[in-house]
Amino acid sequence: MYLVLLGPPGAGKGTQAQVVSKELNLVHVSSGDIFRENLKNMTELGKVAQGYMERGELVPDEVTIAMIRDRLSRPDCAQGALLDGFPRTPAQAEELDRMLAELGDRVVLVPYISVPSQILVERLSGRWTCRAQGHIYHQMYNPPKQAGVCDLDGSELYQREDDKPETVKRRIEVYLEQTSPLIEYYRGKGLLVELDGTQPIEDVTETLLVEIRKVM
Ligand code: ADP
Ligand code: ADP
Questions:
Q1: Gap from CA of 104 to ligand 1 centroid (Å)
Q2: Interval between CA 32 and ligand 2 midpoint (Å)
Q3: CATH number of the CATH domain containing 149
Q4: Residue 193: which domain range?
Q5: Which ligand lies nearest the alpha carbon of 37?
Q6: Count of structural domains within the chain
Q7: Mean pLDDT, residues 193-203
Q8: Angle between the 90-102 and 61-72 helix axes, to the nearest 10 degrees?
Q9: Which pLDDT value is given to residue 159?
Q10: Which terminus of the chain is less hemmed in, N or C, by CB atoms within 10 Å?
Q11: Which residue has the least CA distance to atom 6 on ligand 2?
Q12: How far, in Å, from the CA of 169 to the mean position of ligand 2?
């Protein structure tokens, strides 16, 4: 069962994916996490991705698609996955369809977490991310028990370089230009279900679980 979480930067895709993947025992594949891991380890992929990520631009399709192809071919994804942050362009979406068709599979649902742009800057400026595993917090909306420390693994929380307001503005533009056409792409396939991402985190989770269980 392959699901695609869609929504602008800051919509809550990662937050929801972390909870829902555990609850449903689905592998969480976050393209952003994979890029950040490669950056941390200064791999060839990390070096290619770095400049794009710092500027808030998309890493080129060719590179991103090869990375996801590799990830989805691992045994833990054989039964499906919850994709967070991929696809982000029509070319990536078409390639994903081809990739899954080769495996005799397909995307079964695309929850689209919708949040108006004005809210996104505040969401991302207040985001704190865990160094060890990328667990996500917000200083107001989902604070850790102890400031600066991850509740789940005790590692340090940091603010992502690309969460500064200037870069966030660019990321939102890039989303509107390159990613938002996927809303119509998946609506046309009858796979889209729109969720109100301005609701509290737990409420979004509840709705999301209801929608996913309908297709399980
Ligand atoms: P995305 O993966 O879509 O970029 P995140 O899951 O990282 O989004 O969430 C962005 C920020 O907004 C984080 O700081 C997170 O804690 C916070 N957040 C997520 N969902 C909500 C929500 N429903 N209400 C308020 N804040 C939220
Ligand atoms: P967000 O929390 O805003 O949704 P991500 O962590 O998903 O951000 O992505 C961080 C950065 O990684 C993006 O700004 C982009 O540079 C790169 N990236 C992640 N996923 C993709 C993708 N599918 N295609 C191209 N670039 C990507």
A1: 33
A2: 5
A3: 3.40.50.300
A4: 2-26+79-215
A5: 2
A6: 1
A7: 98
A8: 30
A9: 97
A10: C
A11: 32
A12: 14
The answer to the question of residue 136 being in a domain is: yes
Total number of residues shown for the chain: 216
Structure confidence at residue 19 as a pLDDT band (50, 70, 90):
very high
What is the H or E stretch that residue 5 is in? strand 2-5
37: in domain? no
Cα 34 to middle of ligand 2, angstroms: 9
Measure the CA–CA gap between 112 and 197, rounded to whole angstroms.
Answer: 9
The H or E element that residue 195 is part of is strand 192-196
- Measuring from each residue's beta carbon to the nearest atom of ligand 1, which residues come in under 6 Å? 7, 9-15, 123, 126-127, 136-138, 141-142, 197, 199-201, 204
* 160 counts as catalytic: yes
Other CB atoms within a 10 A radius of the CB of residue 132 amount to 11
The pLDDT value given to residue 172 = 97
**Is 177 within a domain?**
yes
Q: H or E element: which one contains 127?
A: strand 127-130
Note whether residue 35 is domain-resident. no
Contact 58, 174 (CB under 8 A): yes
Do 194 and 102 contact (CB within 8 A), yes or no? no
**Cα–Cα distance for residue pair 200/178, rounded to 1 Å:** 28
* Given the residues 36, 71, 88, 123, the one annotated as active site: 88
